[in-house]
User: What shape does this take?
Amino acid sequence: MMKYLIIAAAFLVSWNSFSQTEIVGKIKTEVVKKHELNYVLHLPVDAKEKKPLIIFLHGSGEKGTDIEKVKVHGPFKYLKSHDLDAYVLAPQCPENEYWDEEVLYRLILKIQKEHNIDPSRIYLTGLSMGAWGAWNLAFAHPEMFAALVPIAGFVDRVPIIENCKIAAIPIQIFHGLLDDVVNVDYSITIYKKLKSCNANVELTIFDDANHDSWSRVYDNQEIYDWMFKQTKNKENEN
Assistant: This one.
Protein backbone atom coordinates (compact mmCIF):
# COMPACT_ATOMS: atom_id res chain seq x y z
CA MET A 1 0.00 0.00 0.00
CA MET A 2 2.86 2.37 0.87
CA LYS A 3 4.35 1.82 -2.59
CA TYR A 4 1.22 3.14 -4.35
CA LEU A 5 1.05 6.16 -2.03
CA ILE A 6 4.63 7.09 -2.91
CA ILE A 7 3.87 6.82 -6.65
CA ALA A 8 0.72 8.93 -6.28
CA ALA A 9 2.60 11.58 -4.33
CA ALA A 10 5.32 11.66 -6.95
CA PHE A 11 2.71 12.10 -9.70
CA LEU A 12 1.11 14.99 -7.79
CA VAL A 13 4.45 16.77 -7.42
CA SER A 14 5.19 16.23 -11.11
CA TRP A 15 1.78 17.63 -12.17
CA ASN A 16 2.22 20.70 -9.96
CA SER A 17 5.62 21.40 -11.50
CA PHE A 18 3.98 21.75 -14.95
CA SER A 19 1.15 24.04 -13.84
CA GLN A 20 1.27 27.50 -15.49
CA THR A 21 0.29 31.02 -14.50
CA GLU A 22 -1.16 33.36 -17.13
CA ILE A 23 -1.24 37.11 -17.22
CA VAL A 24 -3.55 38.97 -19.60
CA GLY A 25 -2.46 42.49 -20.39
CA LYS A 26 -2.54 45.30 -22.94
CA ILE A 27 0.10 47.62 -24.35
CA LYS A 28 -0.37 50.89 -26.19
CA THR A 29 2.62 52.05 -28.20
CA GLU A 30 3.52 54.00 -31.30
CA VAL A 31 6.28 52.99 -33.69
CA VAL A 32 7.57 55.82 -35.86
CA LYS A 33 9.70 55.01 -38.88
CA LYS A 34 11.23 57.71 -41.05
CA HIS A 35 11.37 57.29 -44.81
CA GLU A 36 13.23 59.25 -47.44
CA LEU A 37 12.68 59.05 -51.19
CA ASN A 38 14.54 60.76 -53.99
CA TYR A 39 12.42 61.56 -57.01
CA VAL A 40 12.52 63.30 -60.36
CA LEU A 41 9.54 65.18 -61.77
CA HIS A 42 9.08 66.07 -65.43
CA LEU A 43 7.14 69.29 -65.95
CA PRO A 44 4.91 69.92 -68.96
CA VAL A 45 5.81 72.86 -71.20
CA ASP A 46 2.62 74.72 -70.33
CA ALA A 47 1.56 74.24 -66.71
CA LYS A 48 -0.98 77.07 -66.61
CA GLU A 49 -3.81 74.59 -67.12
CA LYS A 50 -4.25 71.43 -65.08
CA LYS A 51 -2.31 68.54 -66.57
CA PRO A 52 -2.27 64.77 -66.01
CA LEU A 53 0.24 63.06 -63.72
CA ILE A 54 1.97 59.75 -64.52
CA ILE A 55 3.62 57.95 -61.59
CA PHE A 56 6.30 55.49 -62.66
CA LEU A 57 7.75 52.91 -60.25
CA HIS A 58 11.05 51.36 -61.32
CA GLY A 59 12.31 47.81 -60.76
CA SER A 60 14.83 46.45 -58.25
CA GLY A 61 17.81 47.20 -60.49
CA GLU A 62 17.30 50.94 -60.15
CA LYS A 63 17.31 51.16 -56.35
CA GLY A 64 19.81 53.41 -54.61
CA THR A 65 20.75 57.10 -54.60
CA ASP A 66 21.71 57.70 -58.23
CA ILE A 67 18.52 59.35 -59.49
CA GLU A 68 19.63 58.93 -63.11
CA LYS A 69 18.85 55.22 -62.76
CA VAL A 70 15.10 55.90 -62.83
CA LYS A 71 15.52 57.25 -66.38
CA VAL A 72 16.95 54.01 -67.76
CA HIS A 73 13.52 52.48 -68.44
CA GLY A 74 9.97 53.69 -68.63
CA PRO A 75 8.52 57.13 -69.36
CA PHE A 76 11.74 59.04 -68.67
CA LYS A 77 13.54 56.97 -71.28
CA TYR A 78 10.74 57.87 -73.69
CA LEU A 79 11.05 61.56 -72.76
CA LYS A 80 14.67 61.61 -73.96
CA SER A 81 13.40 61.71 -77.54
CA HIS A 82 9.68 62.51 -77.21
CA ASP A 83 7.41 64.89 -75.37
CA LEU A 84 4.55 64.18 -73.00
CA ASP A 85 2.10 66.92 -72.10
CA ALA A 86 1.93 65.77 -68.51
CA TYR A 87 3.76 65.69 -65.23
CA VAL A 88 5.80 62.49 -64.88
CA LEU A 89 6.91 61.47 -61.41
CA ALA A 90 9.57 58.81 -60.82
CA PRO A 91 10.52 58.18 -57.18
CA GLN A 92 13.57 56.08 -56.35
CA CYS A 93 13.38 53.23 -53.88
CA PRO A 94 16.32 53.22 -51.40
CA GLU A 95 18.75 50.32 -51.36
CA ASN A 96 17.69 47.40 -49.13
CA GLU A 97 14.05 48.59 -49.13
CA TYR A 98 10.91 47.90 -51.13
CA TRP A 99 8.11 50.16 -52.27
CA ASP A 100 5.98 51.37 -49.37
CA GLU A 101 2.51 52.35 -50.56
CA GLU A 102 1.90 54.87 -47.78
CA VAL A 103 5.18 56.68 -48.43
CA LEU A 104 4.34 56.80 -52.14
CA TYR A 105 0.85 58.07 -51.38
CA ARG A 106 2.24 60.95 -49.31
CA LEU A 107 4.69 61.80 -52.09
CA ILE A 108 1.84 62.01 -54.60
CA LEU A 109 -0.14 64.27 -52.26
CA LYS A 110 2.92 66.52 -51.97
CA ILE A 111 3.29 66.74 -55.76
CA GLN A 112 -0.42 67.47 -56.13
CA LYS A 113 -0.20 70.28 -53.61
CA GLU A 114 2.81 71.90 -55.26
CA HIS A 115 1.78 71.61 -58.94
CA ASN A 116 -1.20 72.21 -61.19
CA ILE A 117 -2.30 68.58 -61.55
CA ASP A 118 -5.67 67.34 -62.76
CA PRO A 119 -6.87 65.09 -59.90
CA SER A 120 -9.12 63.14 -62.27
CA ARG A 121 -6.18 62.12 -64.48
CA ILE A 122 -3.56 60.51 -62.26
CA TYR A 123 -2.05 57.37 -63.79
CA LEU A 124 0.03 54.68 -62.12
CA THR A 125 2.48 52.33 -63.80
CA GLY A 126 5.53 50.26 -62.92
CA LEU A 127 7.75 47.42 -64.05
CA SER A 128 8.80 44.26 -62.18
CA MET A 129 9.20 45.31 -58.52
CA GLY A 130 7.57 48.58 -59.55
CA ALA A 131 4.56 46.72 -60.92
CA TRP A 132 4.27 44.93 -57.57
CA GLY A 133 4.41 48.32 -55.87
CA ALA A 134 1.82 49.71 -58.28
CA TRP A 135 -0.61 46.88 -57.54
CA ASN A 136 -0.26 47.45 -53.80
CA LEU A 137 -0.58 51.23 -54.08
CA ALA A 138 -3.68 50.95 -56.27
CA PHE A 139 -5.35 48.62 -53.78
CA ALA A 140 -4.39 50.85 -50.85
CA HIS A 141 -5.76 54.01 -52.50
CA PRO A 142 -8.04 53.06 -55.40
CA GLU A 143 -9.82 56.42 -55.22
CA MET A 144 -6.69 58.21 -56.49
CA PHE A 145 -6.03 56.62 -59.88
CA ALA A 146 -7.64 56.95 -63.29
CA ALA A 147 -5.63 54.11 -64.84
CA LEU A 148 -3.18 51.37 -63.89
CA VAL A 149 -0.46 49.81 -66.09
CA PRO A 150 1.56 47.07 -64.32
CA ILE A 151 4.24 45.29 -66.36
CA ALA A 152 5.95 41.98 -65.47
CA GLY A 153 4.91 42.24 -61.86
CA PHE A 154 4.50 39.89 -58.93
CA VAL A 155 1.06 40.10 -57.30
CA ASP A 156 0.56 39.66 -53.56
CA ARG A 157 -2.17 37.44 -52.14
CA VAL A 158 -4.23 40.34 -50.77
CA PRO A 159 -4.85 42.00 -54.17
CA ILE A 160 -5.94 38.67 -55.60
CA ILE A 161 -8.44 38.22 -52.75
CA GLU A 162 -9.68 41.83 -52.82
CA ASN A 163 -9.75 42.10 -56.61
CA CYS A 164 -13.02 44.06 -56.82
CA LYS A 165 -11.55 46.89 -54.74
CA ILE A 166 -10.15 48.34 -57.98
CA ALA A 167 -13.15 47.51 -60.14
CA ALA A 168 -13.51 51.13 -61.26
CA ILE A 169 -9.92 51.54 -62.51
CA PRO A 170 -9.15 50.86 -66.20
CA ILE A 171 -6.18 48.50 -66.28
CA GLN A 172 -3.74 47.27 -68.90
CA ILE A 173 -1.49 44.41 -67.78
CA PHE A 174 1.59 43.34 -69.73
CA HIS A 175 3.86 40.33 -69.25
CA GLY A 176 6.33 38.19 -71.17
CA LEU A 177 5.43 34.54 -71.72
CA LEU A 178 9.10 33.53 -71.30
CA ASP A 179 9.65 35.56 -68.11
CA ASP A 180 12.02 33.58 -65.88
CA VAL A 181 12.13 36.22 -63.11
CA VAL A 182 8.43 36.82 -62.41
CA ASN A 183 6.18 34.03 -63.65
CA VAL A 184 3.51 35.13 -66.13
CA ASP A 185 0.95 33.19 -64.08
CA TYR A 186 0.77 36.10 -61.63
CA SER A 187 -0.60 38.39 -64.32
CA ILE A 188 -2.91 35.72 -65.68
CA THR A 189 -4.35 34.99 -62.23
CA ILE A 190 -5.04 38.62 -61.29
CA TYR A 191 -6.49 39.27 -64.75
CA LYS A 192 -8.98 36.43 -64.38
CA LYS A 193 -9.96 37.64 -60.91
CA LEU A 194 -10.43 41.22 -62.08
CA LYS A 195 -12.56 40.21 -65.06
CA SER A 196 -15.31 39.15 -62.66
CA CYS A 197 -15.99 42.78 -61.70
CA ASN A 198 -13.93 45.07 -63.92
CA ALA A 199 -15.07 45.36 -67.52
CA ASN A 200 -12.13 47.60 -68.45
CA VAL A 201 -9.14 45.33 -67.85
CA GLU A 202 -6.88 43.91 -70.55
CA LEU A 203 -3.96 41.48 -70.48
CA THR A 204 -1.28 41.42 -73.16
CA ILE A 205 1.22 38.55 -73.14
CA PHE A 206 4.20 38.87 -75.46
CA ASP A 207 5.03 35.37 -76.69
CA ASP A 208 8.68 36.23 -77.41
CA ALA A 209 9.48 38.33 -74.34
CA ASN A 210 11.40 37.34 -71.23
CA HIS A 211 11.38 39.61 -68.17
CA ASP A 212 11.82 42.78 -70.20
CA SER A 213 8.31 43.08 -71.54
CA TRP A 214 8.27 46.79 -70.73
CA SER A 215 10.53 48.33 -73.38
CA ARG A 216 8.08 47.82 -76.20
CA VAL A 217 5.28 49.23 -74.03
CA TYR A 218 6.98 52.37 -72.70
CA ASP A 219 8.78 53.13 -75.98
CA ASN A 220 5.45 53.41 -77.78
CA GLN A 221 3.21 56.48 -77.77
CA GLU A 222 0.17 54.20 -77.75
CA ILE A 223 0.25 53.47 -74.01
CA TYR A 224 0.46 57.17 -73.14
CA ASP A 225 -2.41 58.01 -75.49
CA TRP A 226 -4.49 55.31 -73.81
CA MET A 227 -3.71 56.62 -70.33
CA PHE A 228 -4.52 60.22 -71.24
CA LYS A 229 -7.97 59.16 -72.43
CA GLN A 230 -8.84 57.72 -69.03
CA THR A 231 -10.62 60.01 -66.56
CA LYS A 232 -11.53 59.05 -63.04
CA ASN A 233 -15.25 58.75 -62.43
CA LYS A 234 -16.73 61.06 -59.83
CA GLU A 235 -18.21 58.07 -58.02
CA ASN A 236 -14.67 56.67 -57.63
CA GLU A 237 -13.65 59.74 -55.60
CA ASN A 238 -15.97 58.87 -52.72
The mean pLDDT is 90. Residues 2-17 form the longest helix (16 residues). Residues 9 and 46 are 91 Å apart (CA to CA).
